Amino acid sequence: MVVVPRKYLVKPTKTACMFVHFFSYQPAVQSKVAKHIMRSMPRPNGIPRFTIPLHCDGLVLIPSVTGHIFVCNPATKEFVELPPGTRNVSLLQRVAFGFDPYSGTYKVARHFLRSYREGQIHTEYDVGHEVLTFGDGVETLEWKATIDPPYPIKARTPICLPGFFYWSAAQSVVDTDHGKLDTDVILRFSMRDDTFTVHPNPPCSSSLTLKDLLCELSGKLCYVHSPSPYDVSIWLAQDRDNIITWTQRCRVNLPIPRLFRVHACAIAEGTVFLSVDFRHLFKCNLHDGSLSSQYAI
């Protein structure tokens, strides 16, 4: 497991972190201390506040809220910045990163907001989407526009499975006396033909709230739903004939309350790590939802 600590910056456009640290942590053999494997200063002025780092085949991608995107290889200590993409009028953006088995290349995708117009009932968004490819032998890296997403993509970290990126998007927002009710969908972007298809959220939640999370578990799309501070349910997606359906795998009762959200990471068949608020790590049995070990992060 590679750990990249983040520091919260109140003014992300005016302040930056001078260094990025990488740690290696193996809870099965390391009970207390993570091993420091790399420290990098990616740019003279530091790195702006970044969202959750992404990884693929030993490469780590670090996207910042200001649009700067970095790729690092901890094994070789290489750290490079990708060229800037299309201007985004919002800091609420996320980046996808993964391997395309059809072309044998690595691809980075980003969504951006060209403009928006707020109305009394709803807001109109003009959104775009573009992809950068590397590993194809072309020295010059450049972003190429795809078709626009059918719905505005939410500022939540997307998931990559072989050949596809999965984004959470807002299908509709209903204003009931100024109280907004979101209906979200999942947009699956195909790296093969650069197209989007629309799929439903699991039945446990019509909206990906700040307490819920999309992730990947053992090669499957996973939805972690936490309706209350002590309750977590894990849903797995099945893809048959390009139709996604959901099945609840287990329910978990946390021994401590979560304040923000719970992350899941597979470590073996039927076993996952649950990270509660990035502070506590539990080993969870997916068959019955039992927790067997706890580690302090």
Could you characterize the architecture of this molecule?
The protein is globular. The chain contains no helices and 23 strands. The chain has a 4-stranded antiparallel sheet with strand order 4-5-6-7, with no helix packed on it. The model has no long low-confidence stretch (mean pLDDT 81). With 297 residues, it is mainly β. The two termini are 12 Å apart. It folds into 3 domains: 1-51 and 62-76, no CATH class; 82-200, no CATH class; 212-297, Thrombin, subunit H (Beta Barrel), CATH 2.40.10.480. Pfam families: FBA_3. This is F-box associated beta-propeller type 3 domain-containing protein. Residues 18-249 form the F-box associated beta-propeller type domain.
Keywords for this structure?
single chain; 297 residues; mainly beta; Thrombin, subunit H; 3 domains; four-stranded antiparallel sheet; 23 strands; globular; F-box associated beta-propeller type 3 domain-containing protein
